[in-house]
Amino acid sequence: MVRQKMATPMREKTMRVPRRALAAAAAAVLAAGSGSALAAEPGPETLPINVITIQTNDADDQAEALTKALRVAVRAMPGWSLAVGDYSLEVLTLSLKCSEPPDANCQSRIADQIKSDRYVWGTIKKKGTAISGDVHLWVRGKGTSSWKLDYTSNLTEANDDALKRIAGEAITQLTGGPPKGGIHVHVGSVAGQVFVDGQPLGALKGGEGTFMVPSGPHKVTVKAVGYADMESQVTVKPTGAPTEVSVTMIAQGDRTPLNGKRIAGFSALGVGAVFGIVGVASAAQVNSVQGTVTQVRTGQPASADVCSSGFVDPMNSGVSAASLSSACSKGKTFQTLQIVSFPLAAIAGGVGIFLIATSGKSAAPRTGFMVNPQLGPGLNKVDLSYTW
User: Fold this and answer.
1) Domains identified in the chain, total number
2) Which tens digits make up the pLDDT trace of 304-328?
3) Could you tell me if residue 360 is inside a domain?
């Protein structure tokens, strides 16, 4: 009998690669290709910030989530942008043979390595159900600012509202909010005060001044004694030359207050002139109709109503019944307008004269169009003039 030898199943062995070994391999890759990873160039509207992956020995999920949340917070902050590049603090310190955490000299070398003028880095550790640590912002020529973190270890998702608030507060505290840009205000020789979005900013010297304000759109207001407030809308950029703001101040004495009574008086005179013109035109039409009626009435008794529907012209005046009817109707219409228009013209004119006479001191000459109606025997016209 042949015995079959049963194969004993072998258990698959897995080998865990130490974190330090992974970092060393990544450091070698970084050193080999460090010249190709460049941060985004600053644009006219934003300044770039690198966010280096947060370092930890015992809270990998929390470090990854916090890194992503910090990057989202940078993108959301006006005036800042997330620079290109995905770097690890552990890899960088190993590659540059820095201490952990990196000292000031090493932080400067990291900036040169990733070719960035500003970057966020940090470390966290886990103790029970709590996460603690620090995040830092390194800025070329200014050094490092820091912000402490303390929160619960259950925040392992970057889109968690609580973690987003923590990251947003950290970026705000580290950066001070949106980056600032300059505005150069000049208003001639007026010594005024400058306000931005309603908040006092400073005084002008010799009619001009340069101020730093957060980047973005703003309303700039200049106030000066004896002058009207002047406003200008500007968009401030965090890079380049200061945004120019030029305004012309207007002395308050140059503004003549409106005299309502005087304006109403001239308006009434204008209305009266219109009624007067209508009355004169109506009188002319009545006179025209009167000629036709007189022609028909010739030879008729004084009491004869030539405009009655049953009137017969025995003298054969040559005027048809239809023409006579039309003339009579037209005459009645314009006679009514004549009767109404002249009294209204007199009333409106009287009111206008009264208002002007009681309006007080005459206002200073004003620019603009003026209407000057002229009425009288043989003269009915309206003059238009412009004063400047």
Assistant:
1) 3
2) 666 765 555 545 556 666 776 777 7
3) yes
Low-confidence ranges of the chain (pLDDT < 70): 1-44, 253-258, 291, 293, 295-306, 308-321, 324, 361-388
Q: What is the enclosing helix (H) or strand (E) of 68? A: helix 60-76
228 vs 207: CA distance, rounded Å: 15
Query: The tokens of 352 are what?
Result: 């206008």
Give the CATH number for residue 202: 2.60.40.1120
Pair (382, 282) in one structural domain: yes
Instruction: Please give the residue range of the domain that contains residue 32.
Output: 19-175
Helices (H) and strands (E) in the chain, counts: 7, 14
CATH number of the domain within which 149 lies: 3.40.50.10070
Which of 203, 222, 254 is at the close of a domain? Answer: 254
Element (H, E) at 20: helix 19-32
- Whats the size of the chain, residue-wise? 388
Domain boundary among 118, 144, 175: 175
Question: Do residues 196 and 214 make contact, with C-beta atoms less than 8 angstroms apart?
Answer: no
Report field, pTM of the whole predicted structure over 0.70: no
Q: What is the tens place of the pLDDT at every residue in 328-374?
A: 777 788 788 878 888 888 898 888 888 888 877 544 554 554 545 54
Assess whether 170 and 51 both reside in one domain. Answer: yes
Sheet holding 193-196, edge to edge: 199-203, 193-196, 216-223, 230-236
